[in-house]
Amino acid sequence: MNKLKTYYKSAKEELLKVIFPIKEQIRSAYLSVFVVVTVISLFLALIDAIMSLSLSAVMN
Q1: Integer CA distances (angstroms), 46 to 39, 42, 43, 51, 52, in order
Q2: Phi, psi values for residue 20, rounded to 5°
Q3: Which residues in the chain land under pLDDT 70?
Q4: By its UniProt entry, which InterPro entries does this protein fall under (predicted)?
């Protein structure tokens, strides 16, 4: 039982050391991820369209 109390005490101490992000940091990180994913998606869509057009031109 003593080990369990020690475990919970040390877990509580570690949680007090954690620095959670504020709303502005979360919003900034979300916006950064959204922009990067959008740019990469558009780039891949462009490459896919070019490859599709070139392949259909070769096949015809």
Answers
A1: 11, 6, 5, 9, 10
A2: -85, 145
A3: none
A4: SecE_bac, SecE_sf, Translocase_SecE/Sec61-g
